[in-house]
Design a protein that fits this description.
11 strands; alpha/beta
C-alpha cells in the first residue's frame, strides 16, 4: 500500500480503509491492519467499529452530531464510559441540538504526544481498542494528539455540532502548550479547536489526579479551588493575560464547566 504514495505528496493521497477478502488473508488481523494505516502515515485517522462491520470515516462521520472523548489512559474504562454518556445527555439537553442520537466516539492516538494521558505503544493501543470494542464502544484512532487537528478532521465530514468531553486537567495541558507548530500559537490553536460549532465539556478532576496529571506539565501560574476534593473548570485561575482569555472562553460557552463527575 505504501508504494501507492511513491513520489506523491501525502496531502494528495490518503488511504483510510482496507477491506480484506479471500483465503490469503485468513490469518490477517483487520483491526491491526487499519491501525497500521495511521502508524505508517497513510491515513490521518481510521474508524474502528465496536461490531464486525467496518467502514471508512467518511461514511461514519458524514453529517453526524458527534461527541468525542480523548482517551485517558490513567482513568478506568468504566469512568470514561460514564463521562461519555454524561456528555451525550448534556448535548441532548441543549435547546439548539436536534433530537437525533449523537455519534459517540473515543479518540486515541498512535503518536508519541507530550501529553502523558496518551501513550503510543502499539501493543497497548491494540489491547485498548479491543477493550473498547468489547464494551460496544466505537473509536477514532488518529496519528496525532492535538485536539484542534481532531476538530479539523471531523469537520471535513460534518457541519453538525461537535463536542469534546475532557477532564479539567486536559484543558490546562492544552492552554499551557507553546503550540510552536502554529504561526498564531495558542490563539490559532483555539480558533481551530472551536471551529464550526465545537464546544468542550470540561468534567471535574480530583485534586489528587490533578497533581499526578500535571507533574510533568508546564502549567506554572495555574491556581484552583477544590470542593469536596474535586476541581471544576470554572474553579481554575490562570494568571493574566491567559486568565482573561480563559474567562472569555467560559463566559462565551466555548468551554462548558460540568458540575458532576461520573
Amino acid at each position: 500500500m505504501k508504494t501507492l504514495l511513491d513520489e506523491v505528496s501525502a496531502q494528495r493521497v490518503e488511504i483510510d480503509f482496507i477491506e480484506l477478502r479471500g483465503p490469503a488473508f485468513a490469518g490477517w488481523n483487520r483491526q491491526n491492519t487499519l491501525l497500521a494505516l495511521v502508524r505508517e502515515g497513510l491515513a490521518e485517522a481510521v474508524f474502528i467499529a465496536a461490531g464486525k462491520s467496518q467502514a471508512p470515516p467518511t461514511e461514519i462521520l458524514r453529517k453526524k452530531t458527534i461527541v468525542l472523548t480523548p482517551f485517558a489512559w490513567k482513568r478506568s474504562d468504566s469512568a470514561q464510559q460514564e463521562t461519555l454518556s454524561a456528555a451525550i445527555l448534556q448535548l441532548k439537553a441543549e435547546s439548539e441540538i436536534a433530537a437525533s442520537e449523537p455519534l459517540s466516539l473515543f479518540a486515541l492516538t498512535t503518536s508519541s504526544p507530550s501529553i502523558p494521558y496518551l501513550l503510543a505503544d502499539s501493543a497497548d493501543l491494540s489491547r485498548r481498542v479491543d477493550a473498547l470494542r468489547a464494551n460496544s464502544s466505537n473509536a477514532l484512532v488518529f496519528g496525532y494528539a492535538e485536539l484542534y487537528r481532531m476538530t479539523s478532521f471531523v469537520n471535513r465530514y460534518t457541519q453538525a455540532p461537535v463536542r469534546f468531553a475532557v477532564e479539567v486537567s486536559v484543558l490546562i495541558h492544552f492552554l499551557s502548550q507553546a503550540h510552536g507548530a502554529l504561526e498564531g500559537r495558542l490563539l490559532e490553536g483555539l480558533s481551530r479547536l472551536f471551529a464550526q460549532n465545537v464546544r468542550v465539556y470540561a468534567y471535574p478532576t480530583s485534586a489528587s489526579a490533578m497533581q499526578d496529571s500535571l507533574a510533568s506539565a508546564s502549567a506554572a501560574g495555574w491556581q484552583w479551588e477544590e470542593k469536596n476534593g474535586l476541581i471544576t473548570a470554572d474553579a481554575l485561575r490562570p494568571c493574566p493575560p491567559l486568565g482573561h482569555l480563559y474567562s472569555y472562553l467560559i463566559a462565551s460557552g466555548f468551554i462548558v464547566p460540568m458540575r458532576d463527575i461520573p
